[in-house]
Amino acid sequence: MSHVPETHPRYESLRLRDAIVDGIEYGITSVHGLIAHGRGEAFDYLLGERTHDFANKAIHAAVAMLTTAEEPVLSVNGNAAALVADELVALANYLRCPLEINLFHKSKKRERAIKKSLIASGAKEVLLPSSNVCLEGIDSNRGYVHPNGIYKADVVFVPLEDGDRCQALRTAGKEVITIDLNPLSRTASLASISIVDNVVRALPLLTKFARDVTDADSSRRILKDYDNHVILQAAEQQMRKRKT
Ligand code: PTJ
After folding, report:
1. Which long-range contacts (CB under 8 A, 24 or more apart) does 161-164 make?
2. 145's torsion region: left (phi>0), alpha (psi -120 to 50) or beta?
3. For residue 139, what are the contacts with CB-CB under 8 A and spacing of at least 6?
4. Which of 47, 63, 68, 214 has the fewest beta carbons under 10 Å from its own?
């Protein structure tokens, strides 16, 4: 943590900036992650930096989907690793599913550093992308996946990315859950469930709600009633309201 005093009115926001900068210094986060974080900050400002009802509904649906999935996988990039490594590990350990590192900006060095940091946070299984198993319809480094992870998963959890991957995962018949502060992003509009919230607020809630899940039937009912377009519209309206 840098010199920012806890009494600073923007303390939390500045703390997160420091976490991203630390991520770059530890070789975890891409320098492009700074730009992505700044974009997220702008959307979070429009949300009043709090978790809204539409995000809570999406989080409940995400919990229902993850807890009824047969082979869920949590995908991790450089920004998520810098901001919410402990929370991702807690969720993976609770669901007993693997974490898989999947980077847009290719770097074997960063993959190794992220794996090390997830294991230090208590991760049991961290998969790295294979060099010869590739998702169809995706030309970037995000296409390379582990054969026992994202490649065969039925549900892929993708916190914080705006990418070319969501469409390819959906075309491959997988459900995608994302956390993205931008309700207009390609990932948010193509995902099965989009949590429009900051990863630092949404992930602890996911783990908390997952611990409360008791039966698969109520999870299926939640999923049956869930409409992602309604959720995205509510998020966009909230942001427009704030602007005026
Ligand atoms: O580590 P890598 O190489 O995989 O790269 C990761 C980044 C994030 C740099 C890469 O995926 C990227 O460039 O992403 P984009 O296209 O900038 O998209 C990031 C999305 O995440 C944007 O829609 C942001 O609004 C959103 N976002 C940023 N910070 C947060 C966030 N959403 C939730 N919580 C955040 N803290």
Report:
1. 161/77, 161/104, 161/187, 162/36, 162/186, 162/187, 162/188, 163/104, 163/187, 164/138, 164/139, 164/140
2. beta
3. 164
4. 214
Alpha helices in 69-107 (DSSP H): 78-95
Q: How do residues 111-167 score in pLDDT, each as one tens digit?
A: 999 999 999 999 999 999 999 999 999 989 999 999 999 999 999 999 998 878 999
| Residue to mutate (ligand 1; options 161, 184, 190, 206; most atoms within 8 A of CB) | 161
Residues 182 and 43: beta-carbon distance below 8 Å: yes
List residues near ligand 1 (CB under 6 A).
30, 32-33, 36-37, 39-40, 43, 77-79, 83, 103-105, 160-163, 179-182, 185, 198-199
pLDDT at 4: 79
For residue 233, CA distances in Å to 145, 175, 182, 229 come to 32, 20, 12, 6
> CA 104, 186, 230 angle in degrees (round to 5)?
140
Name residue 76's beta-bridge partners.
Answer: 101
| Cα 217 to ligand 1 centre (Å) | 34
Residue recorded with tokens 């995908």:
75
CB 209 within 8 A of CB 177: no
What's the mean pLDDT in 69-96? Answer: 97
Whether the predicted pLDDT of 78 surpasses 90: yes
Which amino acid residue places its CA nearest to atom 14 of ligand 1? 161
Q: Pull the structure tokens for residue 66.
A: 């993850």
